[in-house]
From TrEMBL:
Interacts with PRPF8 (via RNase H homology domain). Component of a U5 snRNP complex that contains PRPF8. This is Protein AAR2 homolog. Keywords: mRNA processing, mRNA splicing, Spliceosome. It holds the Pfam family AAR2_1st. Residues 212-366 form the AAR2 C-terminal domain. The keyword Metal-binding does not apply. The gene is aar2. GO terms for cellular component: spliceosomal complex.
Length: 386
């Protein structure tokens, strides 16, 4: 693990040395890919951890690597959110069986005291925090508090790129297996082959605990007219999510948007990307909420400004349809932001953001909005239109 290639201001270095946290990570195999926040390294033979970590929330991530004799294949990425206090020391030991870091030693005060007493001896083996990327990390997580991160990450404490799945049903006896499709004959179709596969589910405690966006975007007992309105303006669905998951602090929804983005961008979790898209669509298509929740939407523009700077502009283009999910979603946002009743500060900020995206990515937000296209909505069972 090489030291930072960017010279740090001596005063900043001194302050981080005195106030920064330390991650002591013992036994991490040489060749392991390990990183914190926006930077990663390949672990060398002298590596014992990371020092001079600014206090606050961080994302530690790592991939185990096979020995050279086994082809040096890289395993899926594992990550966890950590919050460090000034001068705090966290201790973890590598578990070779689980190929994971075990932080249980951090609960042993005697062990921690020994590590603190030996920090000077450990110092040459600790890599400095990549301070040159701190500004980027802060811009991607400034709305994400420790409480929100802990609430959203799996109960296992690990954010995993590949889902840990188990069979939905455990067939422990011959009788249990008797009703299952036989696998000793050739499949006659793709469907038959898929039906023979065991039904799997994510192992309990390993799933991200994200807000669930309601499939029905309208209130119970809604009339056909209300259903149509709530399908065009998703404010009811947005308010439902805010009330259920972020009632105390609605702006924490922006923290969840950042959490999902970091899980995808750094943790390689595709579910994070899908949730980010869903939250963004919900926010951008809620016209009434935009008039009522000025601070939420001013914050959304800032969050998106920094996030979109980290992804290539062609990333959002569907390779089959050539549609750009982001331009169509933001087109709705900019249209609503220029509508009546929207705060003038928010309207001006949206106009500047639109001009920025148009110039930087050459995205066209002036295309026809298909206002006359029919909107298909699903009516509740039993409701008819005369």
């Amino acid at each position: 693990m090489a030291s930072s290639s960017v010279d740090m201001d001596p005063d900043v270095a001194r302050r981080l040395f005195e106030e920064g946290g330390t991650l002591v990570l013992l036994g991490v195999p040489q060749g392991t890919e390990l990183g914190i926040d926006c930077k990663s390294w390949q672990v060398g033979p002298r590596f014992r951890g990371v020092k001079m970590i600014p206090p606050g929330l961080h994302f530690l991530h790592y991939c185990s690597v096979n020995a050279p004799s086994c082809g040096r294949e890289i395993g899926p990425k594992t990550g966890l959110f950590l919050s460090l206090k000034p001068r705090e020391v966290l201790l973890a030991n590598w578990d070779p069986k689980e190929e994971d870091l075990d932080f249980s030693a951090s609960q042993n005060e005697e062990e921690l005291s020994r590590i603190r007493a030996n920090l000077r001896e450990l110092d040459p083996y600790l890599g400095p925090y990549p301070y040159e990327l701190m500004r980027k990390w802060v811009s991607l997580t400034d709305r994400l508090s420790e409480e929100v991160a802990q609430k959203l990450q799996p109960l296992s404490g690990r954010v995993c790129a590949f889902s840990d799945v188990v069979p939905e049903h455990h067939f422990g006896t011959t009788e249990d297996r008797a009703d299952q499709p036989r696998n000793d004959t050739a499949c006659q179709s793709m469907r038959e082959g898929l039906d023979r596969l065991p039904k799997m589910k994510q192992r309990e405690g390993t799933e991200l605990r994200l807000s669930v966006i309601p499939q029905k975007t309208y209130p119970p007992g809604a009339t056909p007219a209300e259903i149509t309105r709530c399908s065009l303006d998703l404010s009811y669905a947005l308010e439902t999510v805010l009330e259920k998951y972020h009632q105390v602090q609605p702006l924490d929804l922006l923290g969840e948007l950042q959490f999902a983005f970091v899980c995808f961008l750094i943790g390689n979790v595709y579910e994070g990307f899908e949730h980010w898209k869903a939250l963004l669509a919900l926010l951008c298509r809620s016209e009434d909420a935009m008039r009522k929740r000025k601070e939420l939407y001013l914050g959304l523009i800032t969050v998106l400004y920094h996030q979109l700077g980290e992804i290539p502009p062609d990333f959002f283009v569907d390779i089959v349809s050539q549609n750009n999910f982001l331009t169509s979603t933001l087109q709705d946002f900019f249209q609503f932001a220029s509508g009546p009743g929207v705060d003038s500060t928010l309207r001006k900020r949206a106009e500047k953001f639109k001009a920025h995206l148009t110039k930087k990515f050459r995205w066209d937000f002036e295309a026809d909005l298909d206002d006359c296209a029919p909107v298909v909505v699903e009516l509740p069972e039993g409701v008819t239109v005369d």
